[in-house]
């Protein structure tokens, strides 16, 4: 506008006055025309849109805006181009029900159609896939169903992005569906129920094809070798299907691949050292949950961009190649559930400073926990359980400043539990973590126990699990510093001495398992202050004296206390633990009366405890909003 005025101004110096006025008038008209907010739609376009409205259920969110007697370019979610042709329909997450009318295929200027996140059902009209103008089609997260049929061959199509993920589509995906889609860049058909083989023609004549997501379907057969013909494919996700056979070597010709995810299929064979190294741009490699065997090839060290390596739950074996030390961008390294053996010291973890998640559990690793692991100060989750590790935990463990989850159970670790363990910052923080309704989803759902399920980052339970080792010595009183701790398991070790009073400082503790040690002394009454304790086990030690009755302690079953002959129960709650002799029970004179009264008292006590317990649970649960925590 400023430009126009300036031009008019400068021209006014040279032109006669009448011309000046008429020029101004023309400019004004022109300005008015340009400034008019929307073009008006033509009748055919309106008819096509009303056809779509017709397919929706009556009470749709569009019923007030989409009126026959108004300009359809002003309708909710509709954008027209200058010629009054509908260019963009954007109606995501509007609660739309009904079906998608094929009449939308008659909109000759439609570039983008976004109907994601509604409740639309029925089939996807082939007219939309055959439209010569649509560039972006997003119907993800609906209830669309039915099969894709063979489409008549057509001229070159404009479509670049197809997102039909998270629907209920079934049947084969006909190989010619994608014919003519020379411009296709991204196809997401994940989370449906497609079956059969995936079309081998997927990459034919598709020079721009970048993203293919087939995950969570029921495709079977081999991974098509023809994928090797995709010249610029960066993302290939096909996990959670029934693909079988070996990884075709052609796949490793797709050197543009950055993200290769094929978890939870039936893939077999080995990782070929010469093949793998060709994918030099790989950032994510996920082959978990297959039937792979063989070793991790030495050449993997050349994949310097690698950030995530998931090979868990296969049948892989051998030692870790030391070249892994070269993958300095690794954040996530998951090998659990294989047959790897040898020393962890093969890898210099100090060259992997970005590591956040390390899970090697359930393998046959031996030797000691490498010192270099303690330089990974970004580690959040460290799991080495169910291996054959021995030696002591290093006093450098307090370098793991971000650690929230430590699981080294079921090894042969020895030595005094190091005090350094009690100095881990993330475990010390008393920040309460009871809000499990966080929005960000944690990459690996955790199933700690049937009754504790955490799926969110915030809900990530701060844990120390050193159970089933050969740890000796006393539990250091510094334990009380780990105020952020939610789960502590030291069971099945050779710990002796008393349970420190300071345990009462672990105000967030939910699970405490000290069973099968040689602990002595009385149960600290400070345990009564742990209001969130929902699983407690000190069975099979050598504890003595009365079981405290306050707080949560009265809610635990006998099995939490058995195997401690010197323990006694001052109440009648614990039937398998002897009553404390000095108190009331022993004073009752006649056996039969005693039994009778016992029963009466038990019934009353049970009623009170049950009632109070339930009431208390309700209060706690509602106050802290713990949807996933169910007290057994
Ligand atoms: C329009 O839809 C709303 C709900 O979205 C419903 O309450 C209303 O009755 C509908 N109106 C008509 C005329 O169907
Ligand atoms: C819209 O209105 C026009 C006349 O105003 C009418 O001819 C046409 O049938 C109407 N369309 C629908 C779908 O109701
Ligand atoms: C598309 O337009 C043609 C011609 O105007 C018409 O015959 C046909 O019924 C329309 N298709 C749909 C699905 O509305
Ligand atoms: C469609 O809309 C949803 C919700 O706004 C958005 O998340 C999605 O990215 C859109 N799809 C495309 C292809 O832009
Ligand atoms: C569907 O996929 C496209 C392309 O990847 C993406 O832009 C869009 O955001 C996706 N839609 C949703 C709802 O995520
Ligand atoms: C495909 O869509 C699903 C949602 O349906 C989404 O979770 C996934 O990230 C998408 N895939 C790609 C490669 O964007
Ligand atoms: C899979 O699709 C269903 C149906 O649309 C949806 O409810 C679910 O959230 C999707 N799952 C994922 C992981 O996207
Ligand atoms: C991989 O590509 C090379 C050339 O880039 C070619 O010679 C070779 O045959 C291809 N291998 C496969 C298995 O397609
Ligand atoms: C690690 O990642 C960063 C940022 O993503 C990148 O700039 C760097 O090149 C990567 N390092 C290597 C060795 O590739
Ligand atoms: C796993 O590999 C071992 C050899 O490393 C082999 O003996 C065993 O049969 C394999 N198991 C399965 C289920 O393939
Ligand atoms: C790491 O990479 C360098 C150069 O690429 C190489 O010389 C060295 O041998 C590699 N280290 C290991 C342990 O493979
Ligand atoms: C437990 O400790 C007592 C003495 O404190 C000792 O006599 C006993 O042998 C220990 N038992 C075990 C299994 O270590």
From TrEMBL:
It is a single-pass type I membrane protein. SMART domains: LRR_TYP. The keyword Cell cycle does not apply. It comes from the Eukaryota. The chain crosses the membrane at residues 596-616. Residues 1-40 form the signal peptide. Coiled coil: none annotated. It holds the Pfam family LRRNT_2. Residues 43-81 form the Leucine-rich repeat-containing N-terminal plant-type domain. PANTHER family: LEUCINE-RICH REPEAT SERINE/THREONINE-PROTEIN KINASE 1, LEUCINE-RICH REPEAT SERINE_THREONINE-PROTEIN KINASE 1. Belongs to the RLP family. This is Leucine-rich repeat-containing N-terminal plant-type domain-containing protein. The lineage of its organism: Eukaryota, Viridiplantae, Streptophyta, Embryophyta, Tracheophyta.
